[in-house]
Specification:
The protein is of the alpha/beta class and about 750 residues long. Helix content is about 45%, strand content about 15%. The strands form 7 sheets. An 8-stranded parallel β-sheet has the order 1-12-11-10-9-8-6-2. The chain has a 6-stranded parallel β-sheet with strand order 14-19-21-22-23-24. The protein has a 3-stranded mixed β-sheet with strand order 15-18-20. β16 and β17 form a beta hairpin. α8 packs parallel to α9 and α23 packs parallel to α24. It is globular, with a radius of gyration of 27 Å. It binds glutamine and zinc ion. Zinc ion binds next to loops.
């Protein structure tokens, strides 16, 4: 068997071909046969890329029209009852996206990535049955193309662990129904060839597992290994260490275990056991979820450490996870500065790195021909240039971070709030919104035209200001109390700040699949971060000059900026967060000096950065809270700091939220009733809270009575002195016709409640 390995490859296509064809099919502009044709072309092209790069272990069934978890549900016959009567692609896409009569299945984040999977909805009385057609078809397609692929499947324990029971039972209670289907699947696969490699993904093994799940590992992998003699099973894990599961898996007859050595260094502790067991190790050493060029010599040194414990011929060199989480190819980055581009590597480029690392590790430099020697040399030069570049290393930023004193705000919350209530003069149940207002087509075009140089700065500013005027007039008319400028100048809450910070880079084609056909293009942090000049002050100052009411300024917080970017790998995240925080704290200071009294620092993605392992949570919380506090430490006692988070499940992290010490936090609550708010009361949370009182994800306009009722429910949980009233976040995604009546009703509802009490 072979020696280098790719866990999985992105499928959306280097020009997002799959997205284009799917969306046309959904719009009924194309028949499904067209989607199939494009899909086959993509699969073949991706196999070819891997084959050409010299990858030995190439996957099939890593392709999906929407999501691999959804594929697994279809494979197991785990079809929720509401989809009865549908078949094939109509069934598949109805499950993914819903249709006129049926709601879509829930979607949620795949571990700590920005990829979202479709959550299986399981119940005891569905007839689970195997449908292996997709797998067989992809295997045969690969064979026809001239490749003998490994077959990727999602493991039963991960599948169950990530699903939900809609009949109230325990997900692992269905173990007995699912395992026989996996056995049947392997029996079917065993007939495909004289011998077949099956990669069974069990990323759930990188989380803290309870004893029940741990106790299922051995029986599962004993059973699956015995299903067919001609199958080699590789259990693949990624994103963290899998120490506990590894200790069990070595006692099963599987062929190999995949471990991530970049995001789970603790996997080194498992090497002795692996060595004794005689199993093969698929060593994840080339970063599958970042965009930096690999440092080949450093990686080979890391492999050397592994080989000091186990036989090198039992070590396959692999991506750390599926390359799905990285953009496709640098080929289309035509506009990117050449120096910067030379530090990067996307999925296609990573293939070459894996092959090179593997060759250097397994066969030594002696085996290199002159071209390969050149590649190795170029890699070294690129890495040295990155390590020493003046563009990355900014002494003044580093010194500022190194010399940071303790960063606490002026005054304790109790003192600050008294001062502010009198200075700002807002009432109980003060009304506000989360920042953005509907982004009209005109606004988007103006921003785009300005970027492309088709619109002069002057005209652009005039247009934005006129939109701000509209937003202010609207808020005054509706009767909101704390106003916002509406964020027309922002395309995205991270990109907007990234574009104005030194140390940030942007790609043209760095798309990464987020869910279904949707992709995101995260900016990347390559160097020390600094703020050459104020980023938001002119806009907010303008907005404040147009109203007597208080204008709340909007910033994005350091943790969110970090969590929604590709981050440099030559510095601790904590350090990078501090640099961003300093830039934001300068902005806070400039805003207050410009007369702004309330500043909201959004931490929409604070929770997303949580580590998979409990043992690492304390450290994350510590630096994340510190970064937030640093970003607002410049605020004077009389400046009110708000923050915002896009969720309401705070049960496990309420103390951390409290430690951030924001004066006001607005959260997204409308869809989760007030149950989750109780935690604020239970822990005696002191600061003020603005729970979203209506769901903005639907075009529906809630009535006054409904909102009165909602506010009264809130008052059962938190006292009026502590409550702000606002909608959920995301008004920018709605139309003015929907926003207007809803906000009028919200303000009216507050009036009624105030009069009653
Ligand atoms: N201030 C931002 C807005 O209102 C917050 C966005 C978010 O919560 N994701 O659009
Ligand atoms: Zn939000």
């Amino acid at each position: 068997m072979s020696k280098n390995y790719v866990i999985g490859f992105p499928r959306i296509g280097e020009q997002r071909e799959l997205k284009a064809v799917l969306e046309k099919y959904w719009a009924k502009e194309l028949p499904f046969s067209e989607v199939n044709a494009v899909a086959l072309e993509l699969k073949q092209r991706h196999w070819e890329y891997q084959n050409d790069a010299g990858i030995d272990c190439i996957s099939c069934n890593d392709f999906s029209f929407y999501d691999n978890m959804l594929d697994t549900s279809v494979m197991l016959g785990a079809i929720p009852k509401r989809f009865k009567g549908l078949q094939n692609e109509s069934l598949y896409f109805a499950m993914a996206r819903g249709d006129k009569e049926r709601t879509a299945m829930e979607m949620t984040k795949w571990f700590n990535t920005n990829y979202h999977y479709i959550v299986p909805e399981l119940e005891a009385d569905i007839l689970y049955k195997l449908d292996a057609n997709k797998i067989i078809r992809e295997y045969k397609e690969a064979k026809a193309f001239g490749i003998t692929p490994k077959i990727n499947i999602i493991g039963p324990l991960t599948y169950l662990g990530l699903s939900k029971r809609i009949d109230g039972g325990d997900v692992y209670g269905l173990y007995g129904k699912i395992i026989p289907l996996y056995v049947e699947l392997l029996e079917t696969i065993s007939t495909l060839d004289s011998s077949v490699v099956v990669q069974i993904d069990e990323p759930i093994f990188t989380k803290d597992l309870d004893t029940k799940v741990l106790s299922l590992i051995k029986p599962t992998y004993d059973t699956l290994s015995n299903a067919a003699q001609n199958i080699n099973i590789i259990v693949s894990t990624y994103f963290e260490h899998a120490k506990e599961a590894t200790a069990i898996l070595v006692h099963t007859p599987i062929f190999a275990i995949g471990l991530d050595f970049l995001y789970g260094e603790e996997n080194f502790d498992s090497l002795e056991l692996l060595a004794q067991s005689g199993k093969t190790l698929v060593a994840g050493v080339v970063d599958g979820r970042n965009i930096w060029k690999n440092d080949i010599e450093k990686t080979v040194a890391l492999l050397g450490k592994i080989a000091s414990v186990m036989l090198s011929e039992r070590v396959y060199v692999s991506s750390s996870c599926s390359l799905l989480h990285t953009p496709f190819t640098l080929k289309y980055e035509e506009k990117m500065d050449a120096g910067l581009k030379n530090w990067l590597s996307y999925a296609v480029e990573k293939l070459g790195e894996i092959a090179l690392v593997s060759q250097l590790f397994h066969e030594g430099k002696e085996s290199f021909n002159s071209y390969e020697l050149e590649l190795l040399h170029a890699n070294k030069v690129a890495n040295i240039s990155r390590q020493t570049s003046a563009r990355i290393h900014d002494k003044s930023v580093q010194e500022r971070v190194a010399n940071l004193a303790i960063f606490e705000r002026e005054g304790a919350f109790e003192e600050r709030i008294k001062l502010k209530k009198s200075l700002l003069g807002y009432k109980n149940l003060a009304t506000t919104t989360i920042g953005s207002f509907p982004q009209t087509q005109e606004i988007r075009s103006a921003r785009n035209d300005y970027k492309k140089g088709l619109l002069s700065q002057e005209s652009y500013e005039l247009e934005m200001k006129s939109y701000i005027d509209t937003c202010i007039a609207f808020q005054e008319e509706v009767g909101l109390e704390i106003l916002v400028h509406g964020e027309p100048e922002r395309n995205d809450m991270v990109e907007y700040f990234g574009e104005q910070l030194n140390g940030y880079g942007f790609s043209q084609n760095g798309w990464v699949q987020s869910y279904g056909s949707r992709c995101v293009k995260p900016p990347f942090i390559y160097g020390d971060i600094s703020r050459p000049k104020p980023m938001t002050v002119d806009w907010i100052k303008y907005a404040q000059s147009k109203t007597q009411k208080i204008m709340k300024a909007m910033l994005t917080g350091p943790v969110t900026i970090l969590n929604w970017s590709f981050v440099r790998d030559d510095k601790q995240r904590e350090e990078v967060a501090k640099q961003i925080a300093l830039a934001i704290s300068d902005e806070v200071d400039d805003l207050q000096n410009a007369g702004i009294k309330i500043i909201q620092v959004d931490e929409a993605a604070f929770k997303e950065g949580y580590p998979l392992r409990k043992e690492k949570i304390v450290a994350y919380e510590k630096w994340a809270v510190a970064a937030f506090k640093l970003s607002v430490c410049s605020a004077h006692e009389q400046t009110q700091i708000h923050t915002h988070m896009c969720y309401s499940e705070f049960n496990n992290i309420i103390k951390t939220i409290e430690a951030m010490d924001a004066d006001v936090i607005s959260i997204e609550t409308a869809r989760s009733d007030n149950r989750l708010l109780k935690i604020f009361k239970e822990v005696g949370y002191k600061q003020e809270v603005g729970p979203g009182i209506y769901d903005i994800h639907s075009p529906r306009v809630p009535s006054v009575a409904e909102m009165v009722c909602q506010i009264e429910h809130l008052l059962e949980v938190l006292p009026k002195e502590q409550l702000w009233i606002n909608p959920d976040c995301g008004l920018k995604t709605r139309k003015w016709e929907e926003v207007k009546p809803s906000l009028i009703n919200m303000v009216e509802a507050v009036k009624i409640v105030r009069e009653r009490s």
